[in-house]
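Lab notebook, bench 4. The sequencing result for the construct came back, and we need a structural model before the next group meeting so we can plan mutations. Quick request posted to the team channel:

Model the 3D structure of this chain.
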Amino acid sequence: MSDPALWIALTAAVLSCYFAACTMSLRTFSKARMAELLAGRSLENRLDQFIDRAPKLQLICSTLRTLMNLALFVAVLIWFEELRDASVLWYYAASLGLALLLTIVFSVAIASSIARHRPERLLARSIVLLNALHLLLWPIARLLLLLELFVRRLLGAGEDEESDSPLADEILAVVDEHEEDGAVEKGQKQMLEGVIELPTTTVDEIMTPRTEMVGIEVDAPLDQVRATILDHGHSRIPVYEENLDNIVGVLYAKDLIRFLGNGQQMSLRDVTREPMLVPESKAVPDMLAEFKAAKVHMAIVLDEYGGTAGLVTVEDIIEEIIGDIADEYEQAQDEPTVRRIDEMTADVDGRVDIEDLNDQLDLTLPEDGDYETVGGFVFASLGHIPVAGEQFESHGARFTVTGAQRTKVARVRIELLAAPAANGKNGRNGGDGN
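Done. Here's the predicted structure in token form:
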């Protein structure tokens, strides 16, 4: 066996690791952190140029990594040359096995660890070398970029398809960093996250669901209308005919003032305003723009079949950014939505979001089903509207319905069948597991 070949193989493995780490770091690095690392150094004025070159540098580093992996395999073949005469099969098997092992260890495991934890430090220390590589290999990088653009167009993808995501990630990375330093408070971070996530949020995610809507029948007498407004404290209430699927208008409490105490007869049909109807798939920014253009504060949300799915207000959108706003009419809840009884048991409100429950109890319930809440998950698992006392097991937990109404699950007791540490997050989107 040839010792120089072994050293060549190890050198190629290290270089492959370096170029792989650079490739991954160029996709995920924070511009703000890079600026901090380069502050006061002569390289600071090159940062903008480096950022502009990042796409080409990714392709250059990826190409060099591939060449290093090829050199690694050739060097291993030379190193095992003596085995060739004994057995050709063992010669190629041993060469391929060692080359794969070195590639996985260096180019995958170590490289990804470096890129995940210290991408900016790696790039800050490599900026001179990477700029030199760009100077030497930019024609190749340009050719590869044109090829990538050609493939994207064949697939129907735009040139700037992913341009928004890195910017949002950049902002969140800076916020996380300054939160750790104490410069950004938790409430400020929540507001920034809310603003960034708003464009991808739809009204069905923030609306008041149909089961919690307060409405008034169009032929209801004045005394009942007044009592409903006083009981619930809403300034705007949907008005329906026969059922909530037939919303005929929206009643503003201020429109009733002239009818109070004067004995004058009133018909809700004469004072209700035209309702704004929107699909549940409407994006929240578009909803806010419609509210502003129409100068209204409430809209009725329709499902795909034209039935009433719920209602959304300007306040719902504001709460999505700054958190819940409790007014004088809202009753404080007697107990938290997820109440831990002990380490293995929790009492959970049926309206709790599945993703939040997974995070709080370290469960792996599927998040891609036709439901969003714990109550919806119970419905989907049992296949019918449950009654109190029904139970089932799924995804390492026992679910017992402790509170049920005619149309919804109010509360569920969840008992973990294994210690929380055993319920990893992997496989969250797995099968039902009943």
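The two ends are 57 Å apart (CA to CA).
Will bring this to the meeting.
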